Each structure stands twice: as C-alpha cells, then as structure tokens.
Amino acid sequence: MISIEEAAIRAGVHKESVRRWIRQGKIPAALPSRYHGYQIDEEAFEAFLNGKHQIRYRGQVEAKEVLNALAKMWQKTKQPDLFLYARDIAIKAGLYEEHSKTWDSWSGDLLETNGNLLYSRQSEKKHLDRKDLTKKTLQITEKNLEAIEGELLLREYL
Questions:
Q1: How far apart are the C-alpha atoms of 133 and 1, rounded to whole Å?
Q2: What's the CA gap between 121 and 142, in Å, rounded?
Q3: Phi/psi of residue 124, each to 5°?
Q4: Among 54, 64, 138, 154, which one has the highest count of C-beta atoms within 10 angstroms of its own C-beta?
Q5: Sequence ranges of the domains in the chain
C-alpha cells in the first residue's frame, strides 16, 4: 500500500489529482484512519498508470499531426480561434505540460522567436495570481492566456 503523496510523486502529478482519481473510482483506495489518510493498492495503481500513459502516448502521435495541420491552416488564414483548438488538443493529448515547462524556461530559440508572446504569457499568469480580480476580469485574463498559449503551440508546430 502507498500513500497519496507517494502515488503523486510516482505519477508526476499533484496530490489533488490522485485524490480526484480515487473519488472517480479510477484507483481503489482504503481509508483505514483519518490520521494515516488514504492507502492505495500499489499493483492497482501501477496498472492504472501503465494504461493511462499508454493511451496518452498513442493519442499524442495523432494530436501532433492535428497540431501540424492546424498550424499550417493558421499560417494561411490567421484565424485566432485556432489558438483555442490547438491548446485544447494539447491538453487532452497530454502535450500541454511539456510545452508549458518549455515556455516557463524562457530559453534559446524560443525566446528569440516568441519573446513578446512569452512576456505576454508571463504577464497574464501574474495577473491571474491577483486576489482582487472581478469574475469578468478573471474570465478575460484566462481567455487571453489560453489564446497566447494556443498561438505559442501553433508557432512551435510550423
């Protein structure tokens, strides 16, 4: 048996993700005491991870092809709604985290070619951290961030 914390480390996710998987019934877990928290069956957890990552990997190949096609379409049409499609595809295929880490690093060719977008992304992320935002301002900021990240994705797949 392993704890939620250990499961999160093995999966490379936040503890809340593991708790959500438990609530959704994707991972069998027992709650022997509130003090010790949930205990997860190690074999069942490994099987869950293996299945999850295999499906995610298979989907990534197709997602990258779709992102390539979207990038070419965007290059011709400059339709801004393609940004949101690209971001959604990357999230669903498990590609978003990898790109997000790259954007957070601000390095090399990425900075040279997309410096303004990276700066805008950082600015929007800082804006989201503010506690005094109205609901409408929060929604606008989130949409702006999604569009910026979508454009960064499409530029990477050109």
A1: 43
A2: 10
A3: -65, -40
A4: 154
A5: 1-40, 55-156
